[in-house]
């Protein structure tokens, strides 16, 4: 029997309730949090019974409207605030049981953080800002500056290393924030609305840049956003929060195809499915006797990028995996159904995305 892979982050029934009597009130309710009685006791719910795992190299996007508890959950996991109840494990270690020294160690060596506000020091240059966390770790000025320069190149800010934050655009400042958080080579990367202060075009550019970096770095990521489109673009899985509760946690495709609640369905209704679903989610089983077209598509390709090609073919198109083996087929009827039809008529491979 193979041993199960240990998650990098594990949350078990995490609660964060603000207010003086939080712990007492929570104990009384036996975990079944009732908003009204909490409010009566002068408490506010931040996070209500959150349980999930995040695996190595995975990007979990925490999405929800303002006040839904996203930042509070992220702060619990980085222990910037103390949880009221529950367990959090980082690489199998009990985060909530760590003393101050252990905590500083974990934060400095394992966690990188990026905030919406950029949080750069105005009197330090780009290079000095990026080198700072390395110097805090005790790395020499020479080595930290050399490493900072590598980071400048990584986020494509070469030539701006001696500029001051005020001389940079918002997007460039956030690149510095990203470079600084990556300088210490964190295993986990926590980003709280990193692109929210940027205008839409720059924001899209930064999302692309972020995906490029992740394709190289394979960090374990928690990314907070209130923007559902951003979540769909970036996430391996999305956790959608409402009033402190994770209403659904799943792949973008499964959320779009099978919203768990009416609240989530409201987000998914206007989503163009062909921009979210990949070929493997909707492909049909391959029958060796099928007369296939000469063109092929990759199982991970988004429908939108292959629709025209598949629609122009009379015969079914083979869907290939990374080894160029046929794993299914697509035909124009399915593509038309994705684009214009009802979701419940699709041959959906619900687990295809998570197995990828
Ligand atoms: N320090 C605090 N004291 C009391 N209540 C708080 C505190 N911090 C957050 N809250 C409350 O907890 C709930 C969740 O807040 P949180 O900031 O986590 O939401 P969010 O989803 O990140 O929102 P936003 O997108 O606006 O940042 C809200 O009702 C908020 O008012």
Automatic annotation (TrEMBL):
Under the subunit heading, UniProt states:
The complex is probably composed of two ATP-binding proteins, two transmembrane proteins and a solute-binding protein.
**What reaction is this protein's catalytic activity?**
a quaternary ammonium(out) + ATP + H2O = a quaternary ammonium(in) + ADP + phosphate + H(+)
Give the InterPro entries listed for this entry: AAA+_ATPase, ABC_osmolyte_uptake_ATP-bind, ABC_transporter-like_ATP-bd, ABC_transporter-like_CS, Gly-betaine_transp_ATP-bd, P-loop_NTPase
Residues of the ABC transporter domain: 9-268
- Any idea where this protein resides? Cell inner membrane
A Pfam family that the UniProt record links to this protein: ABC_tran
How is the protein disposed in the membrane? Peripheral membrane protein
- Mainly localized where? membrane
State which residue ranges cross the membrane: none
Cellular component terms (Gene Ontology): plasma membrane
Identify the keywords attached in UniProt to this record, alphabetized.
ATP-binding, Cell inner membrane, Cell membrane, Membrane, Nucleotide-binding, Transport
Q: What does the entry give for GO biological process?
A: amino acid transport; glycine betaine transport; response to osmotic stress
Nucleotide-binding among keywords: yes
User: Protein name, please?
Assistant: Quaternary amine transport ATP-binding protein
Please verify whether the record's keywords include Transport.
yes
Q: What family does this belong to? A: Belongs to the ABC transporter superfamily.
Enzymatic class: translocase
- EC number(s) from the headed UniProt entry: 7.6.2.9
Question: Under the GO molecular function aspect, what terms does this record hold?
Answer: ABC-type quaternary ammonium compound transporting activity; ATP binding; ATP hydrolysis activity
């Amino acid at each position: 029997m193979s041993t199960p892979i240990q998650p990098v982050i594990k949350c078990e029934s995490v609660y964060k309730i603000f207010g003086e009597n939080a712990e007492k009130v929570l104990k009384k309710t036996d975990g079944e949090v009732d908003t009204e009685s909490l409010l009566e006791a002068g408490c506010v719910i931040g996070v209500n019974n959150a349980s999930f795992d995040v695996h190595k190299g995975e990007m979990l996007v925490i999405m929800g409207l303002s006040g839904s508890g996203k930042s509070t959950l992220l702060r619990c996991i980085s222990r910037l605030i103390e949880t009221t109840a529950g367990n959090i494990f980082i690489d199998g270690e009990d985060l909530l049981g760590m003393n101050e020294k252990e905590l500083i160690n974990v934060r400095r060596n394992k966690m990188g953080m990026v905030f919406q506000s950029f949080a750069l020091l105005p009197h330090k240059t780009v290079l000095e800002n990026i080198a700072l966390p390395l110097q805090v770790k005790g790395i020499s000025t020479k080595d930290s500056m050399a490493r900072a320069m590598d980071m400048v190149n990584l986020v494509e800010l070469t030539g701006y290393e001696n500029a001051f934050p005020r001389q940079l655009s918002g997007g460039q400042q956030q690149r510095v924030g990203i470079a600084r958080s990556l300088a210490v080579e964190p295993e986990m990367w926590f980003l709280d609305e990193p692109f929210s202060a940027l205008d839409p075009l720059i924001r899209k550019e930064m999302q692309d840049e972020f995906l490029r970096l992740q394709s190289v770095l394979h960090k374990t990521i928690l990314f907070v956003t209130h923007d559902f489109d951003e979540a769909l673009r970036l996430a391996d899985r999305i956790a959608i929060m409402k009033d402190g509760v994770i209403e659904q946690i799943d792949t973008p495709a499964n959320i779009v195809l099978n919203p768990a609640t009416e609240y989530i369905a409201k987000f998914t209704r206007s989503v163009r499915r062909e921009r979210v679903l990949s070929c493997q989610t909707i492909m049909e089983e391959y029958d060796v006797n099928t007369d296939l077209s000469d063109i092929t598509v990759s199982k991970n390709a988004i429908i939108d990028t292959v629709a025209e090609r598949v629609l122009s073919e009379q015969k079914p198109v083979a869907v290939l995996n990374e080894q160029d083996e046929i794993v299914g087929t697509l035909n124009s009827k399915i593509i038309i159904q994705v684009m214009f039809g009802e979701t419940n008529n699709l041959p959906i491979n619900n687990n295809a995305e998570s197995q990828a």
